[in-house]
Amino acid sequence: MPTDEAARLRKAYAPLRTFGELMANRGFRRFFQERNDALAELLSGRLEKPLSECRILDFGCGGGVVAGWLNLHGASSERIIGVDIQRERIMCARRTYPHLTFLEASGEHLPFSAGEFDIIIAFTVFSSILDRSIAKKVSTEIRRVLAIGGIIIWYDVRYPNPFNLQLRAMTRSRIRSLFPGLTAELNTLTLLPPIAERLGPLTDALYPPLASIPALRSHYFGLLHSVAETENTGAVSRARRA
Prior knowledge:
Largest sheet: 7 strands, mixed
Shape: globular
CATH topology: Rossmann fold
């Protein structure tokens, strides 16, 4: 990425809480598990070959939590690569998951061959890129390294956050503009974090009814893939629809 955008990202996300600090919150644990359950259901119903045979890129991998989860659930450690622009996060991922591969890399210039990956994970990545021209370059690069018939698994915020100007809401129209020609099968997921993280001891009782209200679900989750892939595979994950 250009120096100014890369510097902005490093500065904006350096102070974020660690994963351990986040997991100390009951509401965070609940929506984190909800997302993992949705991911597990999606992977069980949409892959044309075993997860262990899929080449996977965790794009914007952060501390490697998703890559580690995939490995724990059957993905081959030799077929998972995580990339992130934040050197500190890459170092953390390498310490936490020393058996996996993590690279510091810019999303505009991924160090991979065309069509190298069957699955690309894009979790809360594009909402962090404020410059639309850079976001377009990154999406083009993701398309380049995605194999024919491959899938992008998407999870990102759909609402603007007035308290975090470093985020850009990823609406359906913005997603379509970044990935023209791909079919988007997206469902709403995750109770608004500012609400979920304040539920405290009432999390188990209140999270389900609140999360059942579509307007209170803050993220889109699902697949981006080619039309041909749509015709040849089964039903989409049954995460709640908008």
